Amino acid sequence: MKSILSTIFITGLLASCSTIDLPDGSSKGYLTARFAVTPNSSPSGPGLEDSPEVNGVIQEAIGKQFQSHGISFGSSETQLIVAYMLIRQDNVSTTMNNDYFGYGRDSIAILDEAHERGVIKNKRPDEFEAGAIVIDILDAKDNQLIYRHFAKRDLLDGADTATRNARINEAVAEALEPFFR
Length: 181
Prior knowledge:
alpha/beta
């Protein structure tokens, strides 16, 4: 039941946002991609489980998704730029880590919209902790946002490493699935 409520709550988080662009471009015609921010710095978002280890799993999952769809990932000469941010929410607050999101796409507006829909307008009767990953893909030629999507999950306290990593891989695959159709 908690998972169903979480899905309803965070689906409203971004899907029906009138102020947040959610372009739905596709991977067709692209051969190379890389991260917007070099994935070797230590994240610093407050209260987020976004250690370098967790970000390493996220980055590996993103790279594997592109490679499994025939797009070379990690080249300096690239056609696509990939960025992501993490959002953590409970019934009173919303925080983010945008260390790997880059600049120019207003992560604060996304955070504000997530807080409005997930905390202020929250109808969940229980206490909860949920997380979301927002993935942006830009065309490297003109830095235009061509795709944005997200995936969300209730956070599991005390999840073992294998469970956590599997959930990260599933969330990344979910967030990128429409891009590869």
